[in-house]
What we know:
By secondary structure, the protein is α/β, with parallel strands linked by helices. The protein has helices at 4-14, 37-46, 58-69, 82-90, 154-164; strands spanning 51-55, 77-78, 107-110, 114-116, 121-125, 140-146, 150-151, 173-176, 181-183, 189-191, 198-204. The strands form three sheets. A five-stranded parallel sheet has the order 1-11-6-3-2, with helices on both faces. A four-stranded mixed sheet has the order 7-4-5-8. The longest helix has 12 residues, at 58-69. The radius of gyration is 24 Å and the shape is elongated.
Amino acid sequence: MASAREDILNKLKSAIHPEPEKPDFDAPVYFPIEQPLELAFKESLEKVNGSVHLCTSETELYAELISFLDGIQKELIVCNESDLKAKLDQHKIPFTSTDQLPHDLSVGITSCEYLVAHTGSVMVSSALGSGRRLFVFPEIHVVIADKNQVVPYLEEAYSAIRKKYPEQLPSQISLLTGPSRTADIEKTLVMGAHGPREFHVFINQNFNK
């Protein structure tokens, strides 16, 4: 009489093992994006608790930003990028520029390198002038971007940044995908434990390069 082990092995030997389907290595890795890239980016980022403000002009963008920052003290809003500071001054938005970030910093305003529609990620680098801390230290991270910075997939973002800095890449290139999120063993989600609690991207859709 066959043992239970032999019985199982005999059944496995007699079973039909069809060959697996041969993978199509020429097929695209990702599904195609069938909507405007900025809308795809908005949809992707909002799935991970980020927020996207699509604006039809620069004037509308900074008007929305004024409303968003209403009630926050000037000393707790920091922007350290020259071009952005000029825009904030132009639109009379109060802010502070300092390398010594206040311990209770509320809002950090930065630009970005690229926006990735597929993942809702924001590519930033140390070359932007914000300093590395401003991407992670504030409670609220605000990114100002233009429509022409949105690319479909990560591949395009990496290719674009190599072309932008052909001689030497920035010492840090990071992808930010929504606010900081972490969970304990019981899957209790906590926002902002290791970075910004809120993540907002303002996009000027009427930018013409």
